[in-house]
Amino acid sequence: MALSPDYIIAGPLWESLESLLGKEGVATANGPLHRRQRRTIQPAFKLDAIPAYGPVMAEEAYALVERWGSGKVLDVTAESFRAAVRIAARCLMRGSYMDARADRICADLTALFSGMYQRMMVPLGPLYKLPLPANREFNRALADLHVLVDEIVADRRASGQKPDDLLTALLEAKDDNGDPIGEQEIHDQVIAILTPGSETVGSTIMSLLLVLTEHPELGDKIRDEVKTVVGDRPVAFDDVRKLTYTANVVTETLRLYPAVWILTRRAVTDTELGGYRIPEGPTSSTVRTRSSTTAGRTSGTRSSTPTAGSRNAPGRAQVRDESVQRGQPEVSQRPFLDGRTHAPHRGDRLRPPLRARGRLRPRPRIGITLRPRRLMLRVLPR
């Protein structure tokens, strides 16, 4: 279904996102337009392009750790999202002006995501136009984000600089007729890359820290691996590929808590799927929060505890997608999502600061992405 031209990315969930992502960005486009856009942005996410992002990732990771004073209670959801936004913005749109604007992007997206899911799931239409405080804050953040993106594009053009980054690729991109792509497409593309990329990366960091809190033995093994591979010096980009156990923990976390938890496709023609006739028009939703290896098994013979060190662990997946094997380009945000980035390492432990009604695990926040709901942790010395 994902690769068939009989289905497109559509449905009420995606259509409600158009106020944020626009209609001409890679996140919402379909067909030939989507394929052309994907070819344009793909070089920025190739493996040989990622080492250039390493210093930014390391700088933001260590800045994050420096804010974690021992004994301090952290709002890990806010901290993780801020780090993800700053990494994505500074890597993909390089320039000294991005440092301050990254925090502004983070503030706008935080306000937008808090209201976007309600608009996706409860389409009340005119009620969202009422001058209520939540609606006003949502509209303010949305307007500021669009203005901010226009400022970033205008400043890059005025500077005359052409660093080897995603924004340069967009400004030099051509359409199918060989003409420069339009201003609206550039605008929508910038938002379509920054917004989902930051949210998915931030959600994955939150889930990973939750897993390490619930299974401290995994954190001990990760720390030992880093000590063995890296020693006492800072982690360098070339070290990351050698941290195999760490990569397995990240992969298993993604299996248990996929940030992108739901996908929808709409049939654009009468077709057939698995022997069943599918008429034109219906939308199919695919929920990704269950593993095919454990779904339907209730006997308790298989645990959902991360088994990152096991050769047979579900998390030991191949790094390539089926789409790659079928000749399709790899997922664009892969280098930011699969854990092969700089991770903060420090000799501390994270613990929930208090027990709320007997619960240590925060309820998940089911929104545009799946992530812990306001994960509060205390930093404790080892």
TrEMBL record:
Which molecular function GO terms apply here?
heme binding; iron ion binding; monooxygenase activity; oxidoreductase activity, acting on paired donors, with incorporation or reduction of molecular oxygen
Residues covered by region (Disordered): 274-359
Bias (Basic and acidic residues) ranges: 337-351
State the source organism's domain of life: Bacteria
Which residues fall in a compositionally biased region of kind Low complexity? Answer: 281-311
Q: Name one Pfam family in it.
A: p450
State the family named in the UniProt similarity comment for this chain: Belongs to the cytochrome P450 family.
Query: What's the protein called, per UniProt?
Result: Cytochrome P450
Look up and give the organism this protein is from.
Streptomyces haneummycinicus
